Design the sequence.
């Protein structure tokens, strides 16, 4: 049996529904249809009355989840695309995210955002907007890069007492495969060393982990050993693991598929520069998407986001300093 | 000769009176510079608000808005909770973290509003939806709103959502003629806001909010229908806001003709006259109620003023509930 | 014996036919793997869409949605613009930056939709509002939407805004029974979507969207009323989506009974039969129209396929228009 | 005659309305009432039909502005509080911000956000959310710190061909005074050296400029000369001026009233660390609001945001290294 990243997300939801009567799923077309990406396939049948189609009302979808959470439920909201979460944004950042701090009542909701670029996706079906959620206090923002993490982190997201924005990468949905689902996992908040190396630390997350790994393989052919850190969670950030890696390599490249201004890469460089300044023996660098909307045409899209080729190129620049 | 005091108007009136006196106290404290931030009153809206609060029971859900002191008291909020929040006592339900009308106790079904208008309605939906999933039946939830807030997308999405799920939602709209300074003519173009009901497929109820008896009856009927499983009920109540938007606002934009019209009547006065006329109470009883309420309010203020404000050094500066993450990832 | 060809149905039908054939071509290209991303068809919605396009004139505003190939052609969009956008030609109006149904020419009044449903309506309002400020009169704007998108806050805010400003907006809702897979029973609870009109204070029009003659009449009347200054007009048209949500979707969730009902009729076939029956045209003419359209479409496809895609090295990677800022603050 | 920051904003709008028939103002209570903060006082009377009350519909408000801009107008939208712009967010970041890039048609709208903390404001009337706008391509984000800049930058905002998010600080509204309005100004995109110094560069913006200046005065008593850079515009960012200052001082402290994760301070440190690494002779630091909602009570609020005292303290730590 071989499972995709998407299967893992489905399985995690099935597992959560099975084990915890407080869990339900609400989102456009998640019911009988099984979701735009089939992440809830067959779940409505398996769990009658607990996997429900919502109207096209992102604001009310999240609001409903918050209310249900107050009543002790553990709702999972599926946004059809991360890009459309902007119209549910207010309920996430101002309603869900402030509830615990204001009242002491926790708000365990999970908002699943199918995010990231795919060929032909275009400006409104490709966005990486994890940073706008991470900017607000009170939100946990997760970005699994592997089939195993998609599974175990989604389970943990549902179990957490806080609002979680779960960024699942559409490009990885069918692209990644694993033999089986994990029974153990790193906890949320811990980064993973996806590949060890001594010459340069590449810190990244989600789909870009695979571009970085590919670049690392390429560079190993040139004699460089690249360490790849997979953040897993972008808020909270595992500064310790990053710092330890930079302490070993002395060099840092941050790679993100999101826009540059104030993104994950900026946050990481800011942390390393201020807390681990002495560890660096070269200027830390970042590589992001270009600062324009995500283009539709594959020619442009491939140039817009970082790829193994551009990661390798950016890495070489640092290594050759 | 007094009628038996079981007339519901009497209990309602007493709550309205308490709410009015509480509001008056906040206004006075504001003028005296004792309150940080804004003060928002429900003056003129007590009849509607109390009717909403009284239509609810323990186990129900209530999402009041800025003019619902009366409804809050009727639903069981204490005067002390209100006073502590306005005065920033660290012992209040919001612990100084939030203030004034942004208070509540979610576990008791009393939602603490966020400021974004319309945003609480879908939260009420969610609580009612959870009741259904948990097989708790017979509860209802009330969400309050103003005429202005009917223009928000949040209101629309939530009312439609409630209709699709056939949730026992009381959608209470106080059409008090103004949204801050904006008259209804710049807010909507339908003849009556209640005309919206058909477009959502929900029950429709109109009421003169200056008339307590009518409010109790109409809101009570709507609540009963929701409780009986007939789905969401839209109640549109007409009145005039008898104060500024907040206490910083002199509301000089409200035309005098409007103030002098029937719409501009003070529901508290109207109710008082009615109760006296019906001989359900007398002036002496009312005076007692008033002085009792004043004493309670003054006591609460005195107590809250003695209580400590929040201590920034003792404060836990954590926005998330997951303690293990706060420990592994300190700020 | 043929009637004079000035019957508006004839011109409309010809546009519908062109739109259908264009859609068919996109579907074929999609199946052949020649299109990046999704393909969205207007199959079954041509009668409504063309009526909207034909009700507009130069200087008017049109915000089509994903099923409006017919309306676009009627409003003056060229087949080449459509094909170039779907095939990502750098010579198309979107220059490969955006694709498929996200095309338009704002300067010509044809708005390029963003994907967020409901978001274009207030933009149409803004253009009409600007006309008023610029003292341009007699123009109207049409915004298209589906049954599902009526649940968005954006729709509500914008329709209410148009009503308050009394803008000449045609709010066209194609109630095609499904939003992706979601049936209307999970989308709204009113009897008919047109029941929403009264709650906004706008004109109300219902039409059977499988009937071209009815569509032309009803949309034409609504447009005339808007143009005459009677404010926004809500048109709700009923039909069944005769295709998947996109070409990746086999729509197996649509019940066969529905397909076989009157609602499930193909407006193009209905119109064709009617035209033939009225003897306004004949089979030979139709065959000519068809082959002419096919030729034009094939020519456009051949041309666009020869055209270069966008060149990432020649691309200006600037999101802002202020050239001086791009120069002083390069990426 | 003495003018406040708020007067300057009113005057800039009056000026724009007077000089340019394409300008109009749309927002809740901006008409006869003159706006919640009186920033449009008397303008409806002076410019009939061009200063209009909107319904409480932030999404539609911005949408209308975009449509009007397509037709060649130059709308100014007033949000009642920046915090409420989250419900108009989508139209700003996905409609307005993408228009030029997608179509070549520019979108000259100005969205005024009364933002920032004041005593007693609480979680939903105090927010500093410039970063969520700056994260998106296609938006200009301005943060004037002085009466003069409030005036000249608002005028320039209206004249710019791009969507501008104009963050005007509520705390400065009545707090700051100037003798007269400027006739000349630095262009948008240029930072200003608010105070010269040689020991440490403090980069900041908006209300925090004044806290930094106060801290600098305090520290000058201790023999330190602090250079204070007022960014004026947070997107685009004037990296050159920052870099030149850091080149002189060798030390950097970034101060922002916003939340830390991915804020302006992170972006600046990331830039300086990657582009001006060699200029630094100590770890760059940042000082932000705490990562919780903005508290209502003054006791908490004063501890939540940076102040002259905490800026001075943070500066001392760097200086004493
Ligand atoms: C989304 C949003 N926009 C703007 C505001 C600012 N605001 C607070 S109260 C108010 C007027 C509300 O009017 P209405 O709904 O009629 O209630 P009323 O004050 O009359 O009771 C406005 C515009 C807000 N709180 N939320
Ligand atoms: C705000 C928003 N949420 C979700 C989507 C995803 N989406 C695209 S089309 C669609 C269904 C639309 O249904 P309807 O409005 O009935 O139009 P139809 O496709 O039937 O023409 C959905 C949910 C979106 N585009 N925008
Ligand atoms: Mg009102
Ligand atoms: Mg539909």
Sequence:
């Amino acid at each position: 049996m071989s499972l995709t990243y998407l299967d893992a997300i489905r399985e995690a939801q099935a597992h959560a529904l099975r084990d915890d009567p407080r869990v339900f799923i609400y989102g456009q077309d998640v019911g009988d249809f099984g979701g735009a990406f089939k992440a809830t396939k067959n779940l409505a049948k398996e769990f009658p009355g607990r996997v429900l189609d919502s109207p096209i009302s992102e604001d009310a979808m999240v609001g409903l989840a918050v209310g249900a959470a107050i009543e002790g439920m553990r709702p999972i909201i599926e946004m059809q695309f991360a890009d459309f979460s902007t119209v549910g944004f207010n309920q996430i950042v101002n309603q869900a995210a402030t509830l615990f701090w204001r009242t002491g009542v926790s708000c365990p909701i999970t908002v699943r955002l199918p995010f990231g670029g795919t060929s032909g996706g275009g400006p409104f079906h490709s966005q990486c907007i994890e940073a706008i959620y991470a900017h607000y206090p009170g939100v946990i923002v997760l970005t699994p890069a592997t089939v195993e993490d998609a599974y175990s982190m989604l389970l943990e997201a549902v179990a957490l007492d806080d609002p979680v924005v779960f960024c699942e990468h559409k490009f990885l949905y069918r692209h990644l495969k694993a033999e089986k689902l994990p029974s153990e996992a790193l906890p949320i908040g811990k980064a993973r060393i996806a590949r060890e190396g001594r010459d340069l630390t590449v810190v990244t997350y989600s789909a870009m982990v695979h571009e970085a790994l590919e670049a690392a393989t390429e560079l190993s052919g040139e004699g460089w050993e690249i360490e790849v850190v997979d953040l897993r969670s972008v808020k909270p950030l595992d500064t310790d693991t990053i710092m330890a890696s930079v302490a070993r390599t002395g060099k840092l490249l941050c790679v993100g598929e999101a826009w540059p201004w104030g993104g994950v890469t900026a946050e990481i460089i800011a942390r390393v520069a201020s807390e681990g300044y002495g560890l660096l023996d070269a200027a830390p660098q970042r590589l992001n998407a270009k600062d324009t909307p995500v283009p539709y045409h594959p020619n442009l899209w491939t140039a817009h986001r970082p790829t193994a080729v551009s990661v390798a190129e950016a890495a070489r620049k640092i290594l050759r300093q | 000769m007094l009628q038996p005091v079981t007339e519901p108007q009497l209990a309602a009136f007493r709550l309205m009176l308490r709410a009015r006196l509480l509001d008056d106290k906040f206004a006075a404290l504001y003028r005296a510079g004792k309150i940080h931030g804004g003060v928002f009153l429900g003056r003129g809206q007590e009849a509607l608000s109390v009717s909403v609060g009284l239509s609810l029971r323990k186990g129900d859900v209530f999402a009041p808005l800025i003019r619902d002191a009366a409804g809050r008291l009727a639903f069981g909020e204490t005067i002390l909770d209100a006073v502590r929040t306005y005065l920033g006592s660290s012992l209040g339900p919001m612990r100084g973290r939030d203030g004034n009308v942004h208070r509540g106790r979610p576990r008791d079904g009393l939602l603490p509003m966020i400021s974004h208008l319309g945003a609480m309605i879908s939260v009420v939906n969610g609580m009612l939806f959870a009741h259904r999933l948990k097989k708790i039946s017979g509860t209802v939830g009330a969400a309050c709103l103003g005429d202005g807030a009917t223009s928000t997308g949040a209101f629309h999405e939530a009312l439609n959502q409630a209709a699709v799920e056939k949730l026992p939602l009381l959608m209470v709209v106080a059409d008090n003629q103004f949204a801050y300074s904006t008259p209804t003519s710049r807010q909507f173009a339908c003849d009556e806001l209640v005309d919206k009901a058909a477009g959502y497929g929900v029950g429709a109820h109109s009421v003169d909010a200056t008339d307590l008896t009518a409010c109790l009856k109409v809101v009570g009927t709507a609540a009963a229908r929701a409780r009986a499983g007939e789905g969401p009920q839209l109640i549109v109540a007409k009145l005039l806001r008898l104060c500024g938007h907040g206490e910083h606002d002199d509301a000089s934009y409200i035309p005098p003709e409007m103030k002098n019209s029937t719409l501009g009547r003070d529901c508290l006065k109207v109710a008082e006259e009615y109760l006296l006329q019906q001989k359900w109470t007398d002036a002496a009883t009312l005076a007692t109620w008033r002085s009792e309420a004043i004493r309670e309010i003054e006591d609460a203020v005195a107590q809250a003023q003695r209580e400590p404000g929040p201590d920034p050094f003792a404060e836990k500066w954590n926005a998330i509930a997951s303690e293990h993450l706060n420990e592994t990832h300190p700020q």
